[in-house]
Every structure is written in structure tokens, then in C-alpha cells.
Amino acid sequence: MALHITASTSPPGLLELPWHLPLAAWDGDFMAGLPRGISRHVVRFVRPAPHGDVYAVKETRPRYAEREYRLLRDLRRLAEPVVEPVAIVSGRVSGDGQEIEPALVTRRLPYSQPYREIFARGVEPSVVPRLIDGLVVLLTRLHLAGFAWGDCSLSNTLFRPAAGEYVAYLVDAETGELHDSLSSGQRAYDLDTAVGNVFAELLDLQAAGSLSTDLDAHDVVDRLSTRYDELWRDLTAEEDFSTDDMWRIEQRIERLNTLGFNVDEIEIVTDWEGSTVHLRPKAVEPGFHCRRLRQLTGMSVEDNQARRLLNDLEAYTAHHDLQAENPELVAHRWLTQIYEPLVRMVPAAIRGELSDPEIFHEVLEHRWLLSERAGHEVDIFDSARAYVRDHLRTEPLEGDQLDT
Fold first, then answer.
1. Beta bridge partners of 31
2. How far apart are CA 12 and CA 50, in angstroms?
3. Cβ-contact 295, 326 below 8 angstroms
4. Which residues contact 392 (CB under 8 A, 6 or more apart)?
5. Closest CA to 53 of 102, 104, 113, 106
6. Rounded to an integer, what is the distance from CA 80 to the centroid of its chain?
7. Which is higher by pLDDT, 42 or 331?
8. Contact partners, residue 357, CB within 8 Å, separation at least 6
9. Which residues contact residue 28 at a Cβ distance below 8 angstroms, ignoring those fewer than 6 apart?
């Protein structure tokens, strides 16, 4: 049987991997020693080309591999937060002629972690609600797109830190189905499945000593259900109110903007006498803040990070009294005078799994702490030097390494 690869683009070195061996037997310099989440399948991280991208390779049954590959591609086209499918490798045969299950190859999501790795580092229980909120936003976005997950859980999700919050990405679509829209029953099934899975996963973490037993798993899954219902209602519910309460339209839109959703279109219908207004959201698209930041600077970041960067850009604009200037020109000045010099101050060798926007957010957080202690505003570049010294190094850096 000939080796067959289905791919939109073929990563360098993909063909040279030992496809004649089961993944469990893979070993060599191409292996990437990264933490793996729990999976019913064998999964390995590889870097086929030196200094190239890292890929996740999962062995699965032929019909599952093809189905998941197509689903992930469809969800990517819909701009949903899912991992990027790269290839299906089938026709695998061992040296003694035995068939080996096909492999699904996905690109590793940079700066992301499985939930067990997050808790293995001894995080506080206060992180749990933020992970749950990230999972709720992911599930809601997928439901708006017509995707029934079928097995929503922390294990089937990757989490990426974003300005104090966590953005969740779907990493396993094996049980999913994509429809034009979902019924209330389909959404309820997904939510019930999520509640059961997350409850069991939290108990498992507590049994392993990775999570404090003071945290009540019942409270956590109650939050999951409540937050989902609230977000779904804000995004989709029709609403009636009097013409004296028109301000409620702006209030609702502002609340959705805060959550990172942009209301592209609304339909307002009044009654015959014009005293009652019926509001019906028609198109709700996520990514409000990241689109605005990309428009101003060309940067592509997570929505929470974009919101934080936009806040700093607004503060910069006000501080220099640039409100009357062209917003894109002001954004370029902020980018070249503040953002880029600051992130260059953090040596690549010690930044770890922190992206540039996350470093900027961390420095802003550290600046707030230093300013509170000092009783006055601390310079942002002094804050960056202190952040590197206090949080990223165990040994001091030379002075010129901390200069812009």
C-alpha cells in the first residue's frame, strides 16, 4: 500500500517522518518534548524541520481522521477558535506488512497549554473560573456557528493566556457535527456533556493533588451553566421595551462589545403606535477588539489582549493630547515608540511561552503594582526593566541587555 498524504500545504520534512512505525514507537531528534493532554488516541509532537513549526500527530481510524480534518478546515474557514489541520497521512504499513492507522496532523497552537499542564504548575484555584469562562465563550461561539461538539471538555481544549484571561481553542472535533444552526436540544446536550466532563476532570485534579480540595466542583459547573445561559441570552435573545428606553440598545451592544462580540446588524421593529420597540440581533460576530486593533496597527492578537492594548493606546493618545490626530497615525507612533521598544527589552532566551502582546500586558500589570507602591506613576520602560528582573530572571542581566 502506497503512503498517501492529503494536505493543503506539505510542511518541510513531513515525508521523512517514520510513518512505517506506530506513533508509540517514534523516537529521534524530530520529537518535540511538549506536554500532552489526555487523549483516547496516541499523540506525539514533532518538529519535522530544524527550527520549523511543531506539529501534533494523532493516530485514529480512517473515517475519523478524514471527518475531523474536514470539520477543522470548515471551522477554520468560519474563523472559529480551533487548531489548524495540516494533513492526513494514510496508507501506512509496517516493515512486516501490517497496516497502521492513519494519522491526523495539526499545527501546534503557539503559547497554548492543556489544562493539566496549567494546574501542574501549582496555579491558584482562582484560575479555574477564568478557564471555565474561556470554555463557555468557545462553546457559545461554536454553537452560534452551528457546530455541535458532542464531547465538550477541558481535555479536548487548549488554553492560551490573554491579558489575564484564558482563550480556549477546540483541539478535538472527532465527535462534532456542523449544521446550519442548532436546536435547543442539541445545545442542551452539549452543555450537559460539558458539565459532566468538567465535573469529573476537576475531581480527578483534586485526587491527583493538582487542585485544592477547598474548591467545590459543584460550584464550578454551576458557573459553567449559568455563564453559558447568560452569554447565549445576551447574544441571541429578542427583547421588547418602550421607546423611552432606547438607551438599552446601546447598553446591550456595549455589553457584547466588552465580551469581544460585535453586533454587525440589528433589527428594530416598532408597534403601530410607535410606543414599543422589539430588538432582534441578526448578526453577532466575535473579535470586536482584535479587528479594531488590526485596523489601526496591523497586529493580530487575541481579543482580550487587543482590548488591553487598545486601552493603552487610548491612554497614550490622551496623554499626548492627540485626540484630533488621525487614529492610524497615532497608533503607528504608539507602536514604534512604546510597544515595539518595550517588547524588545525582554530577551528571547528568558521570555518562555509568552507572546509579545502577553509580555506587554504583564508589564502593564507590573507597572500598576509598582505605581501603587510608589504612590505615583512609574515610567513604563522602568516597569519593563523591573518586570524582567523580578519575574523572568533568577540571575541579573547586564545593563545593556535591559536597554531599549
1. 46
2. 9
3. no
4. 346, 350, 351, 352
5. 106
6. 10
7. 331
8. 162, 163, 299, 301, 302, 305, 306, 308, 309
9. 18
Of 361, 359, 349, the residue nearest 394 (C-alpha): 349
Q: Which has the closest alpha carbon to 118: 81, 163, 168, 170?
A: 168
Cell numbers standing for residue 272: 403601530
Render pLDDT for 232-241 as a digit per residue (tens, 0 to 9).
888 887 777 6
**Residue 264 cell numbers, joined:** 454587525
All residues at 6 or more sequence positions from 172 whose CB lies less than 8 Å from its CB, including other chains: 39, 68, 151, 155, 156
pLDDT level of residue 184 (50, 70, 90 thresholds): very high
CB 19 within 8 A of CB 63: no
The contacts of residue 395 (CB under 8 Å, 6+ apart) are none
**What's the rounded Cα separation, in Å, for the pair 195 and 53?**
34
For residue range 79-129, list pLDDT tens digits in order: 888 999 988 888 888 877 788 888 888 888 887 888 888 887 666 777 888
- Residues 14-51 as b or e (16 or more Cβ within 10 Å = b): beebebeebbeebeeebeeeeeebebebbbbbbbbeee
Q: Which residues face 55 on adjacent strands?
A: 46, 107
* CA-based nearest residue to 172, from 60, 38, 68, 62: 68
Angle made by CA atoms 23, 89, 353, in degrees to the nearest 5 = 60
Residue with cell 517588547: 343
Q: Please tell me the distance from the alpha carbon of residue 138 to that of residue 143, in angstroms, as a whole number.
A: 9
Q: What's the distance, CA 363 to chain centroid? A: 21
Helices assigned H by DSSP within 175-320: 184-207, 217-236, 247-258, 288-297, 303-319
Contacts of 262 (CB under 8 A, 6+ apart): 256, 284, 285, 286, 287, 288, 291
* Distances, alpha carbon 337 to alpha carbons 201, 331, 333, in Å: 45, 10, 6
Q: Positive or negative, the Cα torsion across 195, 196, 198, 200?
A: positive
For residue 58, give the H/E element and its range: strand 55-59
